[in-house]
Write a structure and sequence with these properties.
22% helix, 2 domains, 16 strands, 41% strand, single chain, alpha+beta, 7-stranded antiparallel beta sheet, Immunoglobulin-like
């Protein structure tokens, strides 16, 4: 902003000097402008005392109009120069994305899905897939969007939330893609993309052999992360948790989102009953 002010004052100085050259009975003057933080600008000006009283007469002078057009061209050139210098910052202020996240625990966002053997195509078991809508409510596209699960806390018997120390921060993956896509190239304004958050499985259907957790009970949540760590920190046992997700893009500063997460140790093949009664996700303000 200080640079724009300096350029504007210089433009006024040039215009004043050029216009003063056409005048007679010139009265000189000087103005000092304090911009703060040790910066100041000084420029001289001239006033034609007779020109003030006879100002309308100059409109009939072709020479006056020629100078006016020339000065107008200079002023326009200066404006274009300023716009060129600051075009990126001006663009970011006017056209910018805005990211919002929404969980819906009903179809088509979350639903029961059959898992099949990759080699034979044979049905193996059902899981409940949980997805989030990552929406762009701004007026410019989101570019290279990522989401990371970075922290998990669990509610203790005393009612306090305690940090799950072995939880490994990892990127979540985007839904409906070939392979595991962790970066979504674009989300256009007023549109959204599905992000895979995780799926609820029966314990008997999850391979916990190589993980350090001991899964007992009926269900657990498998977070949809880029890789399955050997620690098994992506496997969330039944209980009440809070999880922090961070969303970021090339043209958007990171945004922290915290969610309450309740997983009941219940399983039913009834999709409506399972999603309404045994799984809970709600945005919160604090991890503790």
């Amino acid at each position: 902003m200080r640079s724009i002010a300096i350029i504007a004052f210089l433009a006024l100085f040039i215009i004043g000097e050029a216009y003063g050259a056409l005048m007679q009975d010139i009265k000189p003057g000087k103005v000092n402008i304090d911009l703060g933080e040790g910066y100041n600008v000084s420029f001289a000006y001239t006033i034609n005392m007779n020109g003030i009283s006879d100002g309308l007469d100059c409109l009939e002078d072709p020479q006056w109009w020629a100078v006016f057009v020339a000065l107008l061209a200079v002023f326009v050139a200066l404006l274009l120069g300023v716009a060129g210098i600051f075009q990126d910052s001006l663009k970011r202020k006017i056209w910018k994305p805005n990211l919002e996240v929404e969980f819906r625990l009903n179809p088509p966002d979350s639903h029961k899905i059959a898992d099949h053997n990759d080699s034979t195509g044979e049905f193996m078991y059902n899981v409940y897939s949980l997805r989030a809508r990552v929406k762009n409510t701004g007026n410019y596209q989101l570019e290279d969007v990522e989401a990371m699960a970075i922290e998990l806390t669990k509610k203790e018997p005393n009612g306090q939330f305690k940090n799950v120390e072995n939880f490994l921060p990892l990127n979540l993956v985007w839904a409906h893609t070939r392979g595991k896509e962790i970066t979504k190239p674009k989300i256009q304004p007023k549109m959204f993309k599905f992000l895979d958050f995780g799926h609820i499985s029966q314990v008997k259907d999850v391979n916990t052999r190589y993980s350090s957790i001991s899964a007992h009970g009926n269900t657990l949540l498998v977070l949809e992360v880029e890789v399955a760590p050997y620690t098994g920190s992506h496997l969330v046992l039944p209980g009440e948790y809070r999880i922090k997700l961070v969303f970021a893009a090339n043209n958007l500063s990171p945004i922290n989102k915290i969610y309450s997460l309740i997983i009941a140790d219940k399983w039913t093949e009834d999709e409506k009953e399972m999603l309404e009664n045994y799984i809970f996700i709600k945005e919160e303000k604090s991890m503790y």
